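It is worth pausing here to work through a concrete case rather than discussing structure prediction in the abstract. The textbook approach is simple: state the sequence, then state the predicted structure, then interpret. We follow exactly that order.
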Amino acid sequence: MKTKTTIAAFLLITGMFAQNKPSIAVLNIDSKGIINTSEEMGFFVRLELEKTGVYSVMDKYEVSEVVKANTVDLNNCYSKTCLVNTGKLLKVDKMLTGSIERFEEKVIVSLRIIDVASGVIEKNESTEYLNLPEIQKMVRVSVKKIVGLEPDPMMVKLLIDYDVPVESPKNTLRLNGPRMGFSSTLGKAGEILSNPDKNKGGFDMFPVNFQFGWQQEVQYISAGNFQALIENIFLIGGLESGKFVPSYTPLLGFRFGKGAWEFGFGPTFRLVKKANGFYDTEGLMGKKGEWYLQNQWNPNDSLGGASPRSNPYVIESRLDSRGNTEISTGLVIAVGKTFRSGYLNIPVNIYVAPRKDGTTVGAMIGFNIQKKKRVQ
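Step two, the predicted structure:
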C-alpha cells in the first residue's frame, strides 16, 4: 500500500512539474543548400528540443492535425505573423522556428523563439558551423544554446572552433599523412645524375624525379596565431628511373595564422652512391677534364713507359654509380601553406637543398586529418 502511495505521489509531482513547463511547438525549419528537407529539419529540432526537457514540446502528430484542419501551409509559414497565428491555433505558449543554410564552407543555423501571447521574439541564436555532414549535431548545439543549456565543449570544438589553436603549451597536435611531389637537382650533381654513360659514373636518371612517402608532424607550441612544430618526412624517389633513393628529413617548423603560412628548416639524409676519384685536368689519362676513379690512375701509361710517378691530382669524393652506398647530408629550407577543407588539411610546400656540387629544388603536396576525440 505504501509503495502504491509513493508511486502515485511521484506521478502527481511529475505531472505538476510538466504542467509548469511552458508549451512550445516546432513547425518546419527552412533549409537551403543542404540535403535535408524543411520537414526533416523540423523533426531534428523538435527531437533535440525534447531532449533538453526545458519545454513541453507539442507532438508532431497533434501539430499536423491542427494545421491541416486550418489549412496552414507549413512550407511557407516562417514569418512572425504566421507563426503567432499558428501558435494560437495550437494553443501553445511559444513557437520555435528558424533556418539552416549552407554558404560556401559554412553551415549557418539560426533559431528563434517567439512568445505567442505578445508576438515578441524572446530569443535569437545564430551559429556558423564548418561544412560537415553532422547536421543533427549542429542542431543539438544550437538548440541547447537557445534554451540556455551548455553544449558539449568537445562537440563545439569539432563543429565550430576546429581551426582555433590550442592555447596550452602542454597540448600537442599530431598531423600525419602521405606526401608526394617532385625534385630536380641542378649543377654538376644534376649532370652526373642525368648522364647515361655509366662508365663515367652516370646514373642515367630523369632530370625531374618523383617522390612519395609519409609525413609525421608534431605541434609542441601553440599560442594564438603562432605554432611551432617538428616534421619528420620519409621519402622514396627515383623509381621512375629504376633507382631506389630513400631519404629522411627532420624539420623545425613555424606556422603563422590559422594554417596560413609555414616556414621550416633542418637536415636531410639520403643514401647515395659515391666514389673517390680525380679530374684529369692536364689530359695525362686522355681527354682533359674527364673524371676517373682513383684506382684507374696508371702512372706508366701517363709517362709513356718512364719511371712510375704518383698521382698529381687531388682525390675527391663525388656522386658515381660505380661507387659505394653511403649517407649524404644536407640542409633543407622549406616554405608552404596549408589549405583546409573541413577536417582535411592539404599542405603544399616548396623547398631548396643547397649544396656545393648542385642544389636540389622541389615541391610537395599531401593531406592529413587532425585526430580528435570522437563525439557520439
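Step three, interpretation. The CA atoms of residues 1 and 225 lie 67 Å apart. The longest strand covers residues 261-280.
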